[in-house]
């Protein structure tokens, strides 16, 4: 096969011996490749910690406002129409609050105003809203050590690095939507508030596939001993402490009966896993060091010594897949260096999320600093 460059296109001329290749492989080989790969969506490293903390199943965050209580929760995968905007200053950092009519009404209902605030000019709207939220603002100022002020939204260009968080606010009236657009500086200022989030709700993960192995015995061999084995040799096996292994971990003892294996005791671990020592962090690598901690946030349970808690420590393999292609053995034999497989990346760098080899969700690839990550779009692990 010969390649000739013509401008930015690459023309593939097929060797006559390759003409017998299967039609779908041959068509892909003839279709030149000239486009530059699209850049991935980019996430700032400090955004990852916040996204992992917010995009978890939690009970609504209940806050008192006036004589009523409001329930706040993060809305995932939604971009509601939010026609009103108010600027926020957190110390020297800038943020923007976007509001729907129902969201504004929920935040100001305790004021019992005669005129709807959505009819007010931007500076007057900000003034009344700051007054309505003083019960929240003053404790936040004391905790963060900086002033928080609301003002009319500016017409400056939208910060491309701002993180947008959509919230739903509920009281006795229909729910309303809000959104916070946080600059990097505002994000750093508000980061301590993540510790106040309600503990995440545990997921049963009932659809997660796990491999169960029935172990007869095991033995440690040196490579030389393994190489020397020939048919007819006998290797002495040591009986395992627990004959059932789940995801590579010995977790249960069982005995064989006519209808199968019977567990002799509840599933339990043989030993605790030790936590690694934390490494010093810099700004670029902070998300790498913290991502496992963030994903496991608030999972420490006073009842962690229960036997079923061992299941939370089982290793799970997560893989991201652009796509797959089935080839017959005949088609596979025709492939050689330079062959092109008819596979294309999905739109927006979408990937299938495979958990223990089974397709369980969808995601999109993102750049995080100099590294690659996947942002979860859908994950169905509960059956």
Automatic annotation (TrEMBL):
It holds the Pfam family FliMN_C_rel. One of its GO terms (molecular function) is cytoskeletal motor activity. Residues 310-378 form the Flagellar motor switch protein FliN-like C-terminal domain. Coiled coil: none annotated. GO terms for cellular component: bacterial-type flagellum basal body. Residues 206-253 form the SpaO FliM/N C-terminal related domain. NCBIfam families: SpaO_YscQ. Belongs to the FliN/MopA/SpaO family. This is YscQ/HrcQ family type III secretion apparatus protein. It comes from Billgrantia tianxiuensis. The lineage of its organism: Bacteria, Pseudomonadati, Pseudomonadota, Gammaproteobacteria, Oceanospirillales.
């Amino acid at each position: 096969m010969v390649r000739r460059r013509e401008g930015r296109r690459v023309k593939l001329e097929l060797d006559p011996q390759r003409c017998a290749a299967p039609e779908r492989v041959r068509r892909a080989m003839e279709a030149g490749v000239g486009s530059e790969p699209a850049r991935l969506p980019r996430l700032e490293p400090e955004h990852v910690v916040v996204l992992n903390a917010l995009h978890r199943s939690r009970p609504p965050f209940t806050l008192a406002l006036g004589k009523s209580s409001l329930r706040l929760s993060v809305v995932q995968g939604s971009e509601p129409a939010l026609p009103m905007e108010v600027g926020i200053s957190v110390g020297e950092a800038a943020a923007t609050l976007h509001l729907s009519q129902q969201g504004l009404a929920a935040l100001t209902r305790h004021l019992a105003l005669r005129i709807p605030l959505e009819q007010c000019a931007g500076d007057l709207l900000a003034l009344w809203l700051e007054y309505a939220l003083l019960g929240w603002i003053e404790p936040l100022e004391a905790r963060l050590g900086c002033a928080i002020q609301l003002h009319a939204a500016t017409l400056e260009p939208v910060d491309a690095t701002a993180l947008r968080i959509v919230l739903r606010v509920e009281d006795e009236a229909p729910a309303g939507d809000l959104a916070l657009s946080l600059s990097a500086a505002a994000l750093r200022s508000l980061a301590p508030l993540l510790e106040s989030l309600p503990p995440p709700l545990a997921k049963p993960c009932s659809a997660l596939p796990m491999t169960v192995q029935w172990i007869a015995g095991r033995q440690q061999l040196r490579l030389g001993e393994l190489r020397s084995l020939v048919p007819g040799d006998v290797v002495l096996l040591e009986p395992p402490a627990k004959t059932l292994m789940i995801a590579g971990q010995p977790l249960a003892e069982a005995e064989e009966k006519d209808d199968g294996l019977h567990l002799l005791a509840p599933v339990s671990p043989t030993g605790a896993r030790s936590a690694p020592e934390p490494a010093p962090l810099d700004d670029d690598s902070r998300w790498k060091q913290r991502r496992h901690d963030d994903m496991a946030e608030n999972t420490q349970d006073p009842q962690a010594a229960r036997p079923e808690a061992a299941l939370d420590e089982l290793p799970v393999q997560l893989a991201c897949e652009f796509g797959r292609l089935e080839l017959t053995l005949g088609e596979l034999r025709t492939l050689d260096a330079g062959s092109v497989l008819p596979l294309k990346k999905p739109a927006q760098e979408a990937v299938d999320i495979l958990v223990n080899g089974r397709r369980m969700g969808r995601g999109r690839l993102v750049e995080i600093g100099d590294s690659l990550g996947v942002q979860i779009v859908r994950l169905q692990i509960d059956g």
